[in-house]
Amino acid sequence: MNKATRPATRKKRRNGLRRTLTGLIVPLALLIAWQIASGAGLISAQLFPAPSSILKDFYDLLASGEYIGHLKISVYRALLGFAIGGSAGLLIGLAVGLSRRTEEALDPTLQMLRTVPLLAITPLFILWFGFGELSKVLLIAVGAFFPLYVNTFLGVRSVDLKLFDVARILEFSRAKQIRRLVLPAALPNVLLGLRLSLGMAWLCLVVAELMGADRGIGYLIQDARSFMQTGVVFVGVFTFAIVGKLADSFVRLLESKLLKWQDNYRG
Amino acid sequence: MTIKGELIIQNVNKSFQRDGSSLHVLSHINAHVKPGQFVSIIGPSGCGKSTLLKIIAGLDAEYDGDVFLSGAPVTRPGKEKGFIFQEHRLFPWLTAEQNIAADLSLKNPAVRMQVDSMIELVKLKGFERAYPRELSGGMSQRVAIARALLRQPDVLLLDEPFGALDAFTRNHLQEALLEIWARNKTTMVLVTHDIDEAVFLSDRVFVMGAGPGTIKHEIAIDLPHPRSRTGPAFQQLRASVMNALHQSETTAQDWEI
Ligand SMILES: Nc1ncnc2c1ncn2[C@@H]1O[C@H](COP(=O)(O)OP(=O)(O)O)[C@@H](O)[C@H]1O
Ligand SMILES: [Mg+2]
């Protein structure tokens, strides 16, 4: 068995590399076209600075240490908010999924709150908690809460009832039923929730930092805009794109490690 | 005086309540299965075979009558009543050996040894680390059998366990089951729709009829093992099961009209 799987793993790795390269074709082509168009003076240097000039801005920000400082505080806010909201979503999703009583008590309220657009409650958060860290982290936490809540709930409820009969015959205790049956069966949904939740955390971070901050990538963008430093704005935008993508790739990696037992269509 | 593996079914009646009306599914089922006996239940689809097996397993507690296993009334499902379903019902996130161990830890040397000997028994060497999706239907069913047998059940209940498999795999698994039975002498109750299977494996064949489900005939299979599926004695018994089944099916149809 082991011998048979080894070449397959190597093949998979090669496929992964190929996929990464395929994914890079479009962005690279765009960048090159952009650079050429800028060099030829076809587009405004003020609104669309050439990639080379953006790179230079990036280098300057990096050299002054400013960039790392902004990135650090942004990532810290996103992670803290995600940790609070995400773990609450996971735990409450589990509780609601496992018990009808809890579902009846909590789910209607949560579903109602879920439909309120985050942008609508941002002013309230600022009124209540001010412009400081607390309002930002809480906003991110609220955003990160719902995807994990909804998907964990869904995952728990999608456990194959037939396997519960097996658990009864094997005399699983309630705790074992949860640990050995419900959690693994819900894992695909939980991981999907995790991905969406991280994405939401990142999105809410942007909202929170654009609303008012004195540090962070969002602040960097806002500040550069007021001074018409379009290159720096681009640095901020690219940072959001790349870190967001990295977080997403991390969860995908987690999925491929934890869900290798699944046989789904993979394209 | 009671003996491990003895199964007594006394006057079992069962109805399902559906949309306010009641469906009488089992009527006056009586059976006495001796320890180590291999019995088969055969009958038309919908006559209540699965329902009866679930009652014996303790998975369904809403019925009239009594079921005793090893002298004690059956009140709930448990390890002493191993159950093999038509679908393997393995945990898809566990490998073959983890499925056999299920809630027991493979790090425990005693468990490790038991699991290894089960893997040997059901001939799955080389596939210990495979996930259910990587196993064929026959292999998965063998993992399920190993999972049940590891718990040393007093009775093994099998609900059309080989029904979804191709003829070749089915024959192979029937022989494997006989081998296991010869070694462990576990009481076996097999539901099947395959007459050959019933005659090949069992000591006794119960033929059920529908509407409501009753045991219409019982046929003793007094053939020594190993049995030849083509011998005249086998064919004769096969014909009598077939006849009994045919009779019970016609009466069932009469009842439906
Ligand atoms: N949970 C249930 N609720 C209502 N009716 C059921 C249920 N399970 C089975 N039945 C009915 O009981 C009868 C016997 O079913 P079953 O025991 O599965 O038959 P068999 O296994 O012999 O094919 C069928 O008519 C079926 O529709
Ligand atoms: Mg059935």
Structural features, described:
Chain A: The chain crosses the membrane at residues 73-98, 110-131, 137-160, 181-208, 228-247. The complex is a heterodimer of chains A (267) and B (257). With 267 residues, chain A is mostly helical. Chain A has helices spanning 2-39, 51-64, 66-98, 100-114, 118-129, 133-157, 161-169, 174-211, 217-226, 230-258. Chain A has a single domain (52-258), classed as MetI-like (MetI-like fold), CATH 1.10.3720. Chain A is built from 10 helices and no strands. In chain A, helix 2 (51-64) crosses helix 10, helix 3 packs parallel to helix 6 (133-157) and helix 9 (217-226) runs antiparallel to helix 10. The longest helix of chain A has 38 residues, at 2-39. Chain A is flat, with a radius of gyration of 23 Å. Chain A starts with a helix and ends in a 9-residue tail after the last helix. Chain B is α/β, with parallel strands linked by helices. Chain B is built from 7 helices and 10 strands. In chain B, the strands form 2 sheets. Chain B has a 6-stranded mixed beta sheet, with helices on both faces. A 4-stranded antiparallel beta sheet of chain B has the order 2-1-4-5, with helices on one face. In chain B, helix 3 (109-121) packs across helix 4 (137-150) and helix 6 (195-201) crosses helix 7 (232-256). The N and C termini of chain B lie far apart (47 Å). The relative contact order of chain B is 0.17. The mean pLDDT of chain B is 93. The interface between A and B is medium-sized, with 21 and 28 residues. The complex binds adenosine-5'-diphosphate and magnesium ion. The site of adenosine-5'-diphosphate has 11 residues of chain B, from strand 1, strand 2 and helix 1.
